[in-house]
Amino acid sequence: xxxxxxxxxxxxTVGYYGMPLGPEAIEYLDALFAKVTSGWKTWQDSIxxxxxxxxxxxxxxxxxxxxxxxxxxxxxVMPPFKFKQNTPQQIKYTKGLADALASKFTxxxxxxxxxxxxxxxxxxxxxxxxxxxxxxxxPTALQGAGKGVPPSGIASIWKASLTMPDFDINNPQAKSxxxxxxxxxxxxxxxxxxxxxxxxxxxxILSGAAxxxxxxxxxxxxxxxxxx
Length: 228
Hints:
Blueprint: H1 6-17, H2 23-46, E1 48-57, E2 60-72, H3 88-111, E3 113-123, E4 131-137, E5 140-141, H4 142-145, E6 146-147, H5 154-161, H6 176-198, E7 200-202, E8 205-210, E9 216-220, E10 226-227
Antiparallel strand pairs: 1-2, 1-9, 2-3, 3-4, 3-6, 4-8, 5-7, 7-10
């Protein structure tokens, strides 16, 4: 599964926080990250990509390389979160995280640029006659298919929403600022080391005319690619 697991995010958060957390705090983090990852999965499933400019050739078997293109998806939405007493302060706290994640995750697809994506398929063209080509991208991890701007600065956005009198985020005795930083670091690091490394692009189809030799000088793929 490409989405980071809630238990792994909680374990990273505890490590980054660097201080003991009681059973209720652990239970809270597990419940919170379950909502974070649920929203993450829904957001990933909404993403489509394609319209890469693909060039290649071949007779019978065909291969090519695609560049450019677009990636698009729905806004990230963290599902509603409740925990035990569900106080106004708790609601404000988790809403701050939800809003920060929505801001940073939603922007990612528009920043992603594809580069050197491999396509394979077949063509009806012969060495001397034109024909048609049908090909599909080779499944590739996102981090090898191009580059985008991963979420960063989530903690700054979240902290800005945690204002007095409900939160004294800069009070070293309260430790709330440190926990915010640890949660956000776990999410940002997992985005890069887990999600980008294991999420695969697949399903993008190229279909069009080919010159003799199966040559395609530059033809757009469909907008039908998905992430798995």
